[in-house]
């Protein structure tokens, strides 16, 4: 005998909170703004939801980068160690990111795949991970969608590079040195 759950619940069930969180996080993210609702749902099936507790390390500076993270709930602190691999060197906070922000996107295209900073959860945090293999699968199976994502990614990287160059110029100017 088939149970009621089989006959009705699976066909008409509402989406889980996790499904809603992933879709809403993707819709709010700049990289996916050109995607149709159908394309967003496709991406939602390939991304990965991760939960972190306060002070959990999401990734460490110089480790192999697998992809980017979008903050669905909570906040993340990005820290930088000044000297390459000296773990006794203290980390300096360089960014405090909240819901809707994303980070680690360079790992989607960087051949070196090494993280330029470390990331830590500031409190209970839920992230949606979009990893390089996910992007490569989309490019292979849905090239039009892949182009839309890559176009937005290049815009983001360009703006972040310009902001970094501007900040370096300001920092040098405030120290009395010429760029």
In total, the number of strands is: 8
Which percent range fits the helix content? Answer: 40-55%
Low-confidence stretches: 1-15
Q: How many helices in DSSP terms?
A: 5
| Strand/helix succession | HHHEEEEEEEEHH
Shape type: globular
Largest sheet: number of strands, sense, barrel closure: 4 strands, antiparallel
Write the layout of secondary structure elements.
Layout: H1 4-12, H2 17-28, H3 37-46, E1 48-52, E2 57-59, E3 67-73, E4 76-81, E5 91-97, E6 102-103, E7 118-121, E8 125-131, H4 132-141, H5 143-174
Antiparallel strand pairs: 1-8, 2-7, 3-6, 3-8, 4-5, 4-7
Helix pairs in contact: 2-3, 4-5
Describe the protein.
The protein has helices at 4-12, 17-28, 37-46, 132-141, 143-174; strands at residues 48-52, 57-59, 67-73, 76-81, 91-97, 102-103, 118-121, 125-131. With 179 residues, the protein is of the alpha+beta class. The radius of gyration is 19 Å and the shape is globular.
Summary?
By secondary structure, the protein is of the alpha+beta class.
From the structure above, extract its key features.
179 residues; alpha+beta; 5 helices
């Amino acid at each position: 005998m088939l149970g009621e759950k089989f006959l009705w619940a699976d066909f008409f069930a509402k989406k889980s909170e996790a499904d809603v969180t992933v879709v809403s996080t993707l819709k709010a993210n700049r990289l996916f703004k050109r995607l149709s609702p159908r394309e967003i749902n496709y991406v939602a099936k390939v991304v990965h939801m991760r939960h972190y507790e306060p002070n959990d390390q999401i990734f460490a500076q110089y480790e192999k980068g697998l992809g980017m993270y979008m903050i669905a709930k909570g906040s993340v602190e990005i820290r930088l160690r000044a000297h390459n691999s000296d773990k006794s060197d203290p980390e300096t906070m360089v960014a405090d990111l909240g819901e809707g922000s994303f980070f680690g996107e360079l790992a989607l295209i960087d051949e070196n795949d090494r993280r330029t900073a470390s990331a830590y959860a500031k409190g209970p945090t839920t992230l949606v991970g979009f990893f390089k293999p996910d992007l490569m699968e989309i490019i292979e199976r849905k090239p039009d969608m892949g182009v839309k994502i890559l176009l937005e990614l290049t815009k983001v990287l360009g703006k972040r590079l310009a902001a970094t160059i501007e900040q370096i110029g300001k920092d040098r100017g405030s120290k009395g040195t010429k760029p």
